[in-house]
Each structure stands twice: as structure tokens, then as C-alpha cells.
Amino acid sequence: MKRRSTHINVQQIARVVIAALLLTITFPLASANSAPVGSPVSITRTITLGGSNATGLHYKDGVIWVTLYNSARVERFNASSGALVGSPISVGANPVAPIEVNGHLFVPSSGSNTVTDIDMATATVTRTISLPGSNIASLNYDGTNIWALSFSNAHVQRFNPSTGALVGSTIPVGANPGMALPANGHLFVSASGSNTVTDIDMSTATVTRNITLSGSNISALHHDGTTLWASVFNGAQVARINPTNGNVLGYTNVGSQPTNIISANGSVWVGATGSDTVTQINPSTGAVIRNISQGGSNISSLNFDGDVIWATNFNGNFVSIIDTTTGTVSSSKPATGSRPVVTLIIDNNVWVGAANSNAITQISGPTPTTTTTTTTTTTTTSTTIAPTTTVVTSTTSTTPIGSTSTTLAGAETQSNNSTGNEEVATPTNGSVRNTATPTSSTSTSSTTTTSVPQVANVEAGDAAILVNGIESVASVSRSNNQVIVSASGIELKVWGVSSTGNITSLDKEGNLRVNDGDLVEMAVSGLKASTDVEVWMFSTPTKLGIVTSSTEGKASGRFQIPSGTQSGEHRFAVEARLPNNEKATIAVGIMFGKAQKSSTTARVLIAIPILLAVGAGLIVPTTVRRRRRRASIS
Fold first, then answer.
1. 79-95 pLDDT per residue, tens
2. Quick one: how far is CA 104 from the chain centroid?
């Protein structure tokens, strides 16, 4: 693997593997059939920035925000015209991929011990947060605190995003940690300086175990909803791990120096920075389906748009396009700036940032030149990020189902087979009381009688919150096939669970789509402690159940969609009390039934785990996967 030019400051972050999580994006989505299969790609424009080496691309309200590693600043440009917006915003040295929390962009500095808090509404720095240690590799948000990973000091430190105040003590992890990935209520941290993955219980902020792997330099992590995957950079392998007990399930041989792992169309895909291959793996068995040569070298990032995978070729200065059904590589390989490392996909547009350049390349037409169709099938054997566009019909009961559940994205879930009006304990997040599903103006459960709550009218993919009947701004994101809504101190996560117990995939428009036999699971935090939380479905008011919040103000539950629900758009709604006792209702637009060929406009905010790797002196920054918009960018 070739090294970068020395101006990237490889001495400071040599042999790091950094994972930067959740670049947030807001955009209207495109029709699932927005472009015919086989349509060519073309270079739309090249946007020239003042700084260089893009390590993160972040979309919000028609503007793309770019973190520039070499220039210690953030720049913005208009996604429609390519024109630069405003002045550069100075941040800490060597910034890497940011995350957004409550309308603020938090930018970690891999060249110092700081995180810069930018108010996105005013494009001004609110504060610079100093952390213990140095070289901040990645950030994760748990709904309350941000977890910051220090590469040089091998620890994780939490801080409050509203005040910047540190929370608790540092938590030790393996040497040279590069990636932190939340799953099943735990934070898993890879160690590029050792052969371990550290498992942290996020509820207690303590280390549960250190998982030892064969080989060394553990770079990328990925959770497919069931299995934790870890790439062994020096061993040309990926390990499969049971995230519940830490048992290593096996190893799969892949290309040299693997640093990219994603799920797409029912398979796990691994990119190799030491070769030109992408390996497709059966997630159930760990067997290799095929090794796909890209015709270049050094696959620095993978990015799935719901139909095809985009792979940046670091040494080849182009992007290749992989058909996820056949594994065929498109003959269209659009050229990019020197050393492409990060991509952002919106609608039929792909933006590519390059490490050795100050240019962002915009490419149009994200479809392969193969003879495959765009039809995909429902996958019930594993949890993937692939779209689900067909329906499996089954007979369901009208009685809601409650179950225990975890609160973080990609959680393994176990169905509770009990039905009826009974209470199901939820040790961490409260309890669920199942209720009947009336369609009248009031709904009666076994414990209480409540009027139908007032909820906002929202379209699929959108969300809104009413506090005492007054609407407040809500941000909507997507991560690991969950829809995540943040507003007024509340964070609500909603996802689908199939009849087999697997987390269902978002559809091609990025919507939560459920079918007959599926369940809807939710986890919410930021509530008043020990109070009832009602869960509803509209437009016909249907009470799905009552969840009691824990002493920490958290609650979760799993609910069945009533039999006879009409196909189309619906609203999943939660009514709860805030810590100040104000009443709040959160409504999320979801889809029920088979996907249609065209849809109405929606606005969503997508947050997706991304890989930012620096291995053997080569920085391989993040890839941002963004689903297609339904309308042109405004």
C-alpha cells in the first residue's frame, strides 16, 4: 500500500485506523425508479475549495459541509449550484468526520485534544471542548452524551453536547483505538495497535471484556444486526463475533489490508486497501461468495446507495460501481481528484472528496451498466442495510406484542411470544403494558382510559414533535436501519423487526417500511422518570400499548401493526411527559405494505456509521452513505 504525500502529516497519525461515525444529512428523497438500469454516469462539475484533503462530507438543508484535514477548517458549498457558501470555519488541527447533535456540528480533531462545536444555523463556533488525551479519532452520540475516542491515549471520554462538560472518567481501551461502534447497548472499540476489541457497557460506562482476535491491527468494525464484524488489517481477514458474549465465531479470508465493511443486499462486503478487491460474504456462514476486482488498486471506501456500491480507488483516482446482485463492476469508472477517499450520495448525485486535492467531484447517474433489474427481495435470514421492495404476507394477530429491547442501533432483538393484556418487564428501560387497538376517539387499556393524543401531520420519512400542542423543530436521522428523531431533549429510535426476529431494512427512499407480520420496535430517552408513555398509530387512531419509563427516563417496547392496516403512509406516534412535566407527542411517518414506484416528497436526516482509516501512514477517510432523494436538490 502506497503512502500519501507527506503534506498529510502522516508522522502525526501514522498507522492509525480511525472510524468516524454518523455524518448527518437532511434531504428530500428520490423515487425508487429515478434512473434506468444501465444509464451512464458523467462528471457534473468539480467544486474547488480553499483547503484540501476532505475527511468528511455532511449534507444539511441544501448545503454540503466539508471537513478539511490539511487546512484545519470546515467549508461549505451549495449542493445544487456548487457555489461556496460563507467563510471557512476554523476548527482543531487535522479534523476528521463530524457528527450532528441538536443542530450543532461536532468536529473532532485528530491532531489535538479538541472537539469544535459549530452552531449550524449561524455557522459560528459555539465552543471548543478540550478533552483529556490527544488525537480524537471518532465521536458517537448515545442520546445523552457524546463519546470521544482518543487514539494516542487509548481511552474513551464522554462529554455533554449542550455544555461541553466532561462526564465521568476516561475508559481504557486497546492500544491505538481507531473505531468505536455502538451495538446492543454496548460500545465496541477496535485497536489498531493490538489484536483486541474492547466491549464497553454504555449504561454503566465500564469495560465488559476485551475480545482477543487472531492477527493484529484491528481496523474496521461493522454490526449487521446480528453479528459483529472486525477486519484484521495485518491478517487479510475479517472476524465474526457474537456481540452478546464476545465469542469469536470464525474468520474469513479477504483482500490484503481490509479496512472497509458494509452490509448491502443481504451480503457483507469488505474492501481491501492493499489490493483492488471487494469481497462479498454470506453473513450467515461467513463463506466468500466472490472476490470482485475493481481494475484499480487500494479500495479506500465503500458506499451503498440502496442499489449499487460505490468504491473509491485511492491509487486509481476513480470510483467503481458494483452491482450488488451479480457482483459485476460497471464499465463506467468516473475519474475523481487525486487519491479519492470519501463519498456522499444524494439522489442521482455522488460527491467524491480526495486526499491529495482541494476538489470535490460531483458525479451524476448512480446505476450500473449491467443487465440486472432493480427489483430486490425481502431478506429474512440476516439483517442488512439493503432495501426491501417486496412484501411477505402472513396472518397476524390484532393483539400488540411487548418485549424487552435494547436502546442502541443495530441491537439484537429477541421476540417475546407472550400475547394479550399482560405486563412484560424491561429491566433497563421500563416496562411494557399491552393494550387493545381501538379505532374510536378514546382508547381503553387494562389499566387506563386516555383520549387520542394530538399529533402532527407528517409524511413518510419526516417527523415532528408537539410540546403542549406547540410544534418544535425535530431532527431526523437514520443509522443501522433505524429512524432516529431528536427534539426538545428527547431521542426516539424506531425500527422494524421481521416475523423471524431480524431487524428489517429501510426501503429505497430511506423510509421505515413494515409489512404484515412485522413488528415496530422503539426506544426513547429524555423522558420524565416512572411515567406512562403511550404508543399510537395513525391515521385511524390505534393505541398500540403503554410503556412505563425507567428511573433514568428511558423506555422501550415492541408492537405489532394491527391486522387489516391499509397499505400506504401512516404515523407512528409516542405521547410522553418531559422532565419538566410538559406533555410531548412525537410523530414519525412510516410506510406499510409493498413499496410503490413513486412516492410523495419527504425530508429526512440520515446518520450512518462510516469508516475513516489511517493505516501504515495512509489516511483513508470516511464514506458517507446517503439514500436517494425523491425530488431534485433545492
1. 999 999 999 999 999 99
2. 17
pLDDT at 473: 67
Instruction: Return all residues near 585 (Cβ < 8 A) that are at least 6 apart.
Output: 453, 454, 455, 456, 465, 466, 573, 574, 575, 576
Model pLDDT for residues 163-200, shown as the tens digit of each residue: 999 999 999 999 999 899 988 889 999 999 999 999 99
5: left (phi over 0), alpha (psi -120 to 50) or beta: beta
Nearest Cα neighbor of 301 from 291, 290, 313, 292 is 313
Cα angle at 594 between 593 and 600, to 5 degrees? Answer: 90
Kind and range of the H or E element at 575?
A: strand 568-577
Q: How many helices (H) and strands (E) does the chain have?
A: 1, 51
Q: Are 360 and 353 in contact (CB under 8 A)?
A: yes
The residues pairing with 310 across neighbouring beta strands, listed in sequence order, are 303, 321
**6 — phi, psi (to 5°)?**
-65, -15
CA dihedral 76, 77, 78, 83 (to 10 degrees): 140
pLDDT tens string 356-403: 999 999 998 644 333 332 222 222 222 222 222 222 222 222 222 222
CA 492-169-110 angle, to 5 degrees, is 80
Quick one: which H or E segment has residue 11?
A: helix 10-13
Distance of CA 532 to the CA centre of its chain: 29
Burial class (CB in 10 A: 0-12, 13-18, 19+), 364: middle
Q: Are 513 and 501 in contact (CB under 8 A)?
A: no
pTM of the model: 0.59
